[in-house]
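Supplementary Note 2. Why include the ligand at all?

Several targets in our set were suspected to adopt different conformations when bound, so apo predictions alone were not considered sufficient. For every target with a known small-molecule partner we therefore ran a joint prediction. The input for flavin-adenine dinucleotide is given below.
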Amino acid sequence: MREISTQVVVIGGGATGVGILRDLSMRGIPALLLEQGDLAHGTSSRFHGLLHSGGRYAVKDDKAAQECIEENIILKTIAAHCIEDTYGWFVFLKGDDPNYLELWLQGCDQVGIPVREVPLEEGFRLEPLLTRKAARIFEVPDATVDGFKLLWSNVKSAEKYGGTYQTYCKVQSLWLENGRVIGVYAEDLITGETLRVRSEIVVNAAGPWSAEIAAMSGFNVDVLKDKGSLLVFNQRLFNRVINRLRVPGDGDIFVPHQTVTVFGTTSHTVELPDDHQVDEQDITYLIELGQNLLEGIERQRIVRSFAGIRPLYESVEDQDQEGRGVSRNFVIIDHQKMDGVQGLVSILGGKLTTYRLMAEKVSDWVAAKLGVHTACRTAEEPLLNEQSAEVWDKARQLIGVAAADKMMERLNEQAGAVVEAIARQPLLGQFVCECEMVTQAEVIHALQDPAVNSLDDLRRQTRLGMGTCQGAYCSYRATPMIHEAFGGWERTVKEYRLLLAERWRGITPVLWGEQLRESELARALFLNVLDLKAEESEG
Amino acid sequence: MWDAVVVGGGLAGWIAGIRAAQRGKKVLLVTEGVGTLFYFSGIFDYGDIEGLRHLPKHPYTLFNSEAIAQGQHFVQEICPEYIINETPQSAFTVLGTVRQGDLMPRNMILPDRQEQGRFVLLVPEGLKDFFPEVVIANMAREFPGWQVSAKRMRVDALAEWVKLGKSVSSIDYSAIWRSEEGQRVLAHEIEEIKRQYQVGNKPQEKIVVVLPSLVKEYVDFSRTKPCIEEFSLPVLEMSSFVPSPHGRYFAEYLKHRFTDLGGELMIGARAVSLNQESPSENKARTCQEVIVNSKGKSLCLKGKKFILATGGLLGGGIKVGMARKSIHEGVFDLPLFVPKEWSEPQFFASQPFAQIGVETDELMRPLDPARGEVVWDNVHVVGRMLAHWDPWTQRCGGGVSVTSGYVAAELV
Amino acid sequence: MDSRDELAARLDACQKCNMCTAQCPVAKVNPRFIGPKGLGPDMERFRRGQINLDETMLDDCSNCKTCELTCPSGVKITEMILGARRAASKARHKNTMGLRLGLRGYILGRNEYLGKLGVIWPTLTNQVLKIKLVRLALDKTLSISKNGPLPAYGKPLKIQPDKVGIGTNTNKQVVYFPGCYTRFNEGDTGRILIRLLEHLGYKTTVPDFHCCGLPLEANGQFGKADKNGRYNLELMRPYLEAGIPVITSCTSCGLTLKEDYPKLETSSAQLIGAQAYDLFEFLWQLHEKGELPLDFQEVRASYGYHPPCHLKAQGIGTPALRILGLIPGVKIRNLDAGCCGLSGSYGFKAEKYKKAMKIGSSLFEAINVGSQHGDFQSMTTECGVCKVQIVHGTGIPTEHPVHILAKAYRLID
Ligand SMILES: Cc1cc2nc3c(=O)[nH]c(=O)nc-3n(C[C@H](O)[C@H](O)[C@H](O)COP(=O)(O)OP(=O)(O)OC[C@H]3O[C@@H](n4cnc5c(N)ncnc54)[C@H](O)[C@@H]3O)c2cc1C
Ligand SMILES: Cc1cc2nc3c(=O)[nH]c(=O)nc-3n(C[C@H](O)[C@H](O)[C@H](O)COP(=O)(O)OP(=O)(O)OC[C@H]3O[C@@H](n4cnc5c(N)ncnc54)[C@H](O)[C@@H]3O)c2cc1C
Ligand code: SF4
Ligand code: SF4
Ligand code: SF4
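The joint prediction is reproduced in token form.
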């Protein structure tokens, strides 16, 4: 058993966890983050990608709305490279409740969300697919955020300040001594080795798994696991976030992400923190609802579906059965106060939009405990340094404008090395993924990162497999790289299978139209052209 | 009035069209695109014919073994490089693993594993979607007794591509191999290989040159200049990835066979519906004409027989709408067999949705699955449009398409 | 479905299989050209995603439509490319090269005026165009290739405006849209066509049409192309409303009338698609109705036939082959060996001349092999520009199929 010691252990590599790691590191507090999967294994990659302006909570939850608009402004400055400042529209449809509209305008006004009414004619011109049932349109500073990029930027920044993290390392139990948490036991899922980490404080930022972590030492925390399902459309249907202006409910937000559109969501309480199964019923239900904002939605190609679990905090006073009724605010649970155990703190609830604020509050608490008085600087210091125009130009010359821009966004400071590699050997500029324009050089680069342990990790790093073909072509094109990095043919085949199986789980609930054709083609490619063995069916 | 109107220009449609034209019929082939033929790896899979014929509803149950053999001979007649064997043969996939196949070009058939020798893989510079390191490792594993080496090569005509870091598709490479210049380059490379490996120690060692995307079998000498015939070492060609040079050149070859036999080709037109004789009760209907969208207007194509070869899900003949609320066949609106369970949780399993298609009688005329009656008297359904098969797990894609196309042509 | 919706649906149909790119004649010869998949459905997702793109490559597409005929998914690739070119042409910045190319686009795009120039001094122009120095000057000043074939000029086709007006027997009346090439470079073909139609009992009107607009579009002059289209439609309007067909003998004009004109915003736009006919398509229809006289004389000749890209794109098959197949003695072989390389005015451009010749090489090879085998002595094809390129590339005499038909009817020798 390997033993390490540090000052703070952070459990969970979601937005909240990485935010905490960065904040602590910037304050000079040594911290180690442990994550059972790849970064963003949990909710932080299974979400809608909306950087809230607060508009959605303006009527019901002014505290949440307030936090959102403040964080929205901060993140647009410190994490500009992860955010596309699309703006969002709240669309009031003919026949919707005018009282709510009034309340909403008042609410926005009170918390300071800037609202501009968009003339209908302009609205239809800018968003030709928007339903003609729209009666009024209001613009707010909603934006879209790439959760994965945001998480990676946080850990990379934390590393610069001495923070460390380990992925594929699962906390198995808390290390308790004399009524104190003095560290954790964890298993390295790749080597199978057990790890004992000694620390002064353990932060439980395990999102939907928080209750499981707390339960390891016999405590109870109230997390409501609220599953939401989402659909990914093949193309950018709208250029802005489109919300329906009514009491927040299911299926009323479209979020454009680069080339695709994500639409959702639903809300069901579930038992397990990793219940990511999407029900076909939810999908038909969503499509019906989507019709209200986008007529002809049934003709648009859906490339996949996915679900995430909202780790909502269920406070004792607010025992509402439906997930959505619960406040979106977050809480920090000091287990000394709650359960009489020192050294453990849990953070629950919140939203991705408010991850930085949550991290700040937890870090304040931790710093106070440790007697560190450095102030939080995460609201001021950008996650990234400016990119050199030189690298940018060179990349554009080598692989074209669009591909270069996309790569620079993904790689930031590390792009230089990839650009050099292509300059030395132009054929490395060939695309592995043609829809997302990921080059061979970038894939090779990504594979050098010790955190990339599978084709599926590679997918999250590079976006390969996230486009139209859902891995049919790009996993084939990644063959020489994975063959070399992971050693050999058998492993390569296993990686194809795992990636395609993962993609298949998201496709089966939406198996019709063009994605059905694409799946049939992918089967032909792998079973016939590449001659992989068919599997016995379960049935 | 055409003797036969073939709707769909994939493998099944072409075979039907060529055979009917060969029989002296006036044939019109209408197709929207080139179909999945461009994906075809060069090898015809027939699968375990006898086993499949014992399944309750597989398309093979519609044919006798004679018809299946006639189809195979027809392929060989069109393209004599295809060899008919009693037992399946093996070839290299594009990744250098070994796959079986039932009807394949002479050049593709692998040597005996028990023999000893040396493979020299010719690696054309910048060939798209081709991974020599993986191929070499796989070849060495599959042929333990053999030496495997690689020789990189370049073609002057493509220097600009390589300089720009642009890969060259295997289709473009095979175009080069089919040209005089390409043949010269190959002959030169092969000579070098011979010199390198046959000098000194082991002159008797068997050397086989392996080349991706050499597509030799579909050369049409009425349109192409003949060039060097034989190289100084045997050259083995690999089967190809998508878009496949084999599929591409085979498709062109089939097209020329068809038009040279007097067939009329209408490409870029989508059949959308039909006109029928006023239906009388209890009798199968007769189709008079299909309606096709050309640019600007619809055309009515009159025929005695209609062959539906629109390729099922992938070819575009069957459309499945959002949430599967609508599932239909696009030209005749034929009743379809739609499996109740739609998919399997494992991606690589036999998928129920693959079985979707048209059920037919023995003459491949469409049946109404509910009543078991023939719906159209003069319509024959072929290829991937037929129900109850999965070409990828049963490995009979080419077999079903060729046989059904051939048999339908005999019925014209 | 509104049109944006429809386009969106077809964008969704793309399976990323790359077959279109594998077939694109330009991608084959130009390594910088990313091909139809890239420029069409791939980039279209980016365009909608508001991602920066370098759209200069768009101009390298020759608009031959091969990609669209290949696609197994019915993706409207060239529509996306043309749409993006339209958008890019609005935003184009001017540099000196840009200006020169602009002027060249102006000249090549205005085939009509280049044509008229030639008509005024027919012999002079042919002579002048043969002078190396002049070609060199054109090359240097206008980037019109000094080696490329430029069409020769002959006696132009006369306009035959409809003096009588729309007759009572409208089903024995047609409008002929000759197109610039026939009108200015090959008036003979037009005159023969009119005689042929007369022989079949049709009264033919030839209004003073402008260029159909396709060469303008190809050279980035979208506004002017639309203007020409509306002008021509206006001339056609009374005939269209009376149900009179419009006949084309140039396949590119035909495609433009059928594909582009219906999108123009003018009243007769809805009618033109269904009433525009390729000459042989029209004749085949007569034949199917039993109205085409079959009193042909034997024509002992064998031909190789080249189906022009823009004929294939019309989705009507090869009606000329069907009709010529009715003539006793005629032996005709459909070579179908790919694009000739010129595609409108593409191959006239200096920087594209070599590429155009390379594109045409498999066609040239098929022609050379066929003629050496003695399969045929001459070529026939509907498109004038293909003809120019075939003669330039192989030296084999080439004529419009209407000549063969006219011989069979004893209208010419
Ligand atoms: C459908 C849906 C849509 C949403 N949309 C939005 C939106 O548009 N905008 C917005 O701001 N918010 C949105 N949210 C909310 C937001 O996604 C979450 O609040 C946020 O991602 C939570 O982050 P987290 O770090 O707390 O949890 P997580 O991201 O779940 O991170 C917890 C991590 O802990 C790890 N972990 C668990 N157990 C262990 C262990 N034993 N050892 C090691 N690691 C462990 C997990 O693997 C996981 O990676 C949405 C949520 C859902 C479900
Ligand atoms: C990736 C891949 C690899 C393959 N490799 C092999 C192999 O190695 N060996 C083997 O034996 N088999 C192989 N096959 C399978 C084999 O080619 C099948 O037989 C074939 O897929 C089915 O052929 P088809 O003619 O029925 O349909 P398709 O080839 O799909 O043809 C359908 C045609 O109909 C046209 N069409 C559709 N609707 C309309 C309409 N309304 N109007 C006009 N035209 C229309 C389409 O454009 C298309 O041209 C492969 C298939 C694929 C997909
Ligand atoms: S996932 Fe496949 S189709 Fe999609 S972008 Fe990547 S390579 Fe292209
Ligand atoms: S129209 Fe022709 S040149 Fe243009 S992309 Fe398509 S195939 Fe290529
Ligand atoms: S446009 Fe058509 S041919 Fe081209 S990649 Fe897409 S599906 Fe394939």
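Confidence is low (pLDDT under 50) at residues 93-100, 115-128 of chain C. The longest strand of chain C covers residues 173-177. Comparable summaries for the other entries are listed in the accompanying table.
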